[in-house]
Specification:
The complex is a heterodimer.
Chain A: E1 3-7, E2 10-14, E3 19-26, E4 32-38, E5 44-50, E6 56-58, E7 64-68, E8 73-78, E9 87-94, E10 102-103, E11 107-112
Parallel strand pairs in A: 2-11
Antiparallel strand pairs in A: 1-3, 3-8, 4-5, 4-9, 6-7, 7-8, 9-10, 9-11
Chain B: E1 5-7, E2 10-13, E3 19-24, E4 31-38, E5 42-50, E6 65-69, E7 75-79, E8 88-95, E9 103-104, E10 108-112
Parallel strand pairs in B: 2-10
Antiparallel strand pairs in B: 1-3, 3-7, 4-5, 4-8, 6-7, 8-9, 8-10
Classes of the chains: A mainly beta, B mainly beta.
């Protein structure tokens, strides 16, 4: 069975500050890992994905994530937060024969002016 | 190109009625997924179709839920005898192949009164 844990249901940062959203996964096999963003009343938009090609993955809107197998982590970062980054962020895992994505509970990112 | 589309965008129904939710995947995508998003349960995987193969229905929450995919393209999720706990946003996603990134539609917000 797979699982995803996102630490912090809400994260607040100042505009221009570093964004760090934490994700830890549990999987019995090398996983495929994803970060999605959801803006209010919209569907999920893919930010980036890890598929074993490189441990540091760059995504859209200046976000990146680093896969650390020893820590079973896939944390999402952005060097400088922008007001438009305010949204709900979901980490997800697929693998081990599972057909669909297993999502974390999400982290609501708040940007303070 | 066109993304995943879902209809209706909103559906209000009375308890006990049947509802049908429709998903049009991205053209050429062979894999199609249904998820449910609710406040209490977060994002849950429901069912997955790969081409014309029989789907894995093990994620469906009850036997009141069913889904079909015609001609390997459009999919319909049917909920019979709706209950208040069925109220949620139902999201559809498609991908070019299993374990590739999934692209999500805007969702159908179902409210059971």
């Amino acid at each position: 069975a797979q699982s995803v844990t996102q630490l912090g249901s809400h994260v607040s940062v100042s505009e221009g500050a570093l964004v760090l959203l934490r994700c830890n996964y549990s999987s019995s096999v090398p996983p495929y890992l994803f970060w999605y963003v959801q803006y209010p009343n919209q569907g999920l938009q893919l930010l980036l994905k890890y598929t074993s090609a490189a441990t540091l993955v760059k995504g859209i809107n200046g976000f990146e994530a680093e896969f650390k197998k020893s820590e079973t982590s896939f944390h999402l970062t952005k060097p400088s937060a922008h007001m438009s980054d305010a949204a709900e962020y979901f980490c997800a895992v697929m693998g081990g024969g599972a057909d669909g994505l297993t999502f974390g509970k999400g982290t609501h990112l708040i940007i303070q002016p | 190109g066109a993304g995943v589309s879902q209809s209706p965008s909103n559906k209000v129904t009375e308890k006990g009625k049947d509802v049908e939710l429709r998903c049009d995947p991205i053209s050429g995508h062979t894999a199609l997924y249904w998820y449910r998003q609710s406040l209490g349960q977060g994002l849950e995987f429901l069912i997955y179709f790969q081409g014309n193969s029989a789907p894995d229905k093990s994620g469906l929450p009850s036997d009141r839920f069913s889904a079909e995919r015609t001609g390997g393209s459009v999919s319909t999720l049917t909920i019979q005898r709706t209950q208040q706990e069925d109220s949620a946003v139902y999201l559809c996603a498609s991908s070019s192949a299993p374990e590739r990134e999934q692209y999500f539609g805007p969702g159908t917000r179902l409210t059971v009164t």
